[in-house]
Amino acid sequence: MSLSTCAPCLFWQSSIGKKIVVALTGAFLVVFLAGHLVGNLLIFQSSESFNHYADFLHTMLHGWGIWLFRATMLVALALHIIATVQLTAANRIARPTRYQKDATMVASRSSRLMIWSGLTILVFFVFHILHYTVRVDGDLKQLADFHQNWAMTVAGFQSIPVVLFYILAMGLLCSHLSHGVGSIFQTLGLRTKKSANVINLFSKAYAVVLFFGFISIPVSICFFGLGEKEMNETIQKVEAAAKAGLTSLPDAGDKH
Amino acid sequence: MNLTLKVWRQYDIQDDGRLETYDAKDIPIEASFLEMLDIVNERIINDGGEPIHFDHDCREGICGQCSLTVNGIPHSKEQGITVCQLHMRKFKDGETIWIEPFRAKAFPLLRDLMVDRSAFDRIIAAGGFIDVRTGSAQDANNLPVAKTRAEASMDAAACIGCGACVAACKNASAMLFVSAKAAHLNLLPQGAPEKDKRVLGMVRQMDAEGFGNCTNLYECEAVCPKEISVENIARLNRDYAVALAKEAAV
Fold first, then answer.
1. A198 lies in which domain range?
2. Considering only residues 48 to 107 of chain A, which have any Cβ-Cβ distance to chain B shorter than 8 Å?
3. Share of residues in chain B with pLDDT > 90 (%)
4. Closest partner CB to B72 (pick from A16, A91, A102)
């Protein structure tokens, strides 16, 4: 079987096949975002429950769970991006001469800016990973080393430019999802005349709920001083413990 | 009424093409859009110039031959009509009207406002038919077809193949045309046995012709003179995935 005739190759090379890849990986990312938000909102409950949740993520399936998830996430993201960039490039080629007078009947601005909102979200994604997963900031890394993920998150949102960038990125994510969520249904052949309005509404509502859900955290921390006192106390404890050569806080009640 | 026209003039595919401005004076308000162009053309001919070339045939809104983009929208912003059914009363006196061809790589320009839409014919030839003779019309209800399927098939069959969907699509995708032509046969008992072969053949030909990819903007549905629903596109997406899986499994 040659490369050009194997079934997955034909699927990938065809217009519809590639879009189904975009829809399926998009669906995975959309569901992930909901889970990510629910987990993040634990920050409002208490530092204990948030840290416990972070520890759970790092220790599930004996520590393999998070890496399994990260690998899946990376594959999904890569496929989503490669497919959409290729589709967009093909779309540009399909209309070499543009209209001198261009007009739009029904397509929303969000739907026409998908590639740009998507690529900006990619930049944000890289920043976000460096910020909270790789932790290029040494202070955040130290808090995480002591399993103080709650204090790490609060400390990470003390800078106004960082928070503004998060809000901008979430705005673009909201725009991306408002078209993307509904598109999943259309591309997978699940949208009918009857369900079209419900799907459109669901798509927009999902995007808006995720936008306010995600920005509530940096906004509360940066502009309303959420957890400032407790964060400072934790930082002091962690620094004292680090000076004493400890690897975990003595009163943290180590759950391992 | 007096109008200013900005018309795309291009000698052939090699030519770069340009917008030229024409004064269309004393146009009767009851004229159709194509009649207005006829009047302008007669004056150009009288002045010894080359008339504006454009496609038209029935001028009744059913043949799918006329193909003008008016102010950036194929067949104009009026919904559910071809441009031959557009009348000058829809414009204001003194207005400037931009007239361009249907633009897509798969629709190579022939001259001025005329484009070659034979890519659509090749897509039909790749599967938009049934192989066996089905005979002449049978007695009513001899072949039971569910009401909803018959309606959906008839709605899809209303497609006149004008290409406005491609012209309106920001990606020059032909999905609305292909999905309508596939659905119209796939939904009926006569067409169902060859459904998978048809879907694969037509989609592959569509890709080979160089049309773009659908990004679910639904501009096509908005400009379609026959108001074909994008539900057909969802159906085609589904049918294609199933047909390809079956092809791989066999």
1. 7-94+108-243
2. 87, 90-91, 93-107
3. 93
4. A102
Residue A116 per-residue DSSP state = H
Confidence (pTM): 0.93
| Residue B134: pLDDT over 80 | no
Tokens of A174: 């909201």
For chain B, domain boundaries: 3-111, 117-249
What is the CATH number for A163?
Answer: 1.20.1300
Which CATH code fits B3-111? 3.10.20.30
Distances from the Cα of A194 to the Cα of A50, A116, B230, angstroms = 42, 31, 12
A171-229 confidence digits (pLDDT tens): 999 999 999 999 999 999 999 999 999 999 999 999 999 999 999 999 999 999 998 89
Read off the DSSP letter of residue A134.
Answer: I
Rg, C-alpha atoms of chain B: 20
Identify the three-state secondary structure at position B73: strand
The interface residues of chain B toward chain A in range 115-154, judged by CB-CB distance below 8 A, are none
